[in-house]
Amino acid sequence: MDTGKLIFITGGVRSGKSAFAERLAVKHAREADTSLHYIACGIPSDTEMQERVKRHQRDREKSGFTWRTWEQPVHLSHIAHQFTGQDVILLDCVTTLLNNYLFQEETTDTKIVADLVQEDITALCSRADEIIIVSNEVLQDIPYEDKLTLNYQKVLGHVHQKIVKRANLAILVESGIPLVKKGRLE
Questions:
Q1: What share of the chain is helix, strand, coil (3-state, %, to 5)?
Q2: What residues contact residue 151 under an 8 Å CB cut-off, 6+ apart?
Q3: What is residue 106's three-state secondary structure?
């Protein structure tokens, strides 16, 4: 099965990774003269999240490019058929998608959760020309003793490794600076 280009962007909270990913997606969509899609996994359940959603929407509006936004907290594979081999997709973000499976869908088996995330990513990659995936880097701390947090770190680490193995390009954003970890940023 042919798959489009996969770019993985990670970084700490407020590191500038989403803004960087949005600029990169716009650049690639302009170069390819194609459609640009934003898959938002976040559920604006509190004031802080509502503010973040609004800020991201304003940032996309300022980009000067038309984005089609998909509010899809889980089961991204269900919307994959909406995309074509010419589309650029920005998925924001894997940690939220993982949270949604664990806590909204109440899926407790971490292997099933990891498989669902991989199924979603595989489905999107099989349809789009390019997919840019954003995630949060929560693995740089020492492992937590709390079982729930430790399990979360383990499954996220496993998911990140699988994505990076498949990715053409992997970037860590720190303080707004992209650091290429795999591939070449052109």
A1: 45, 20, 30
A2: 110
A3: coil
d(CA 70, CA 79): 9
* 178, β-bridge pairs: 173
Determine the Cα–Cα distance for residues 11 and 7; give it in Å rounded to an integer: 14
pTM over 0.85: yes
Tens digit of pLDDT for each residue in 48-92? 877 877 887 787 778 788 899 999 999 999 999 999 999 999 999
What's 115's domain CATH number?
3.40.50.300
Per-residue burial over 4-23, b if 16 or more Cβ lie within 10 Å, else e, is bbbbbbbbeeebbbbebbbe
Hey, how many other C-beta atoms are within 10 angstroms of the C-beta on 146?
A: 10
Nearest CA-CA partner of 41 in 94, 81, 79, 2: 94
Tally of structural domains, the chain? 1
Residues of the domain holding 100: 5-182
Q: Rounded distance, CA 43 to CA 146, Å?
A: 25
Are 70 and 38 spatial neighbours (Cβ–Cβ below 8 Å)?
Answer: yes
Strand partners, 124: none
Distance between CA atoms of residues 127 and 149, nearest Å: 33
Pair 17, 176: CB distance under 8 Å: no
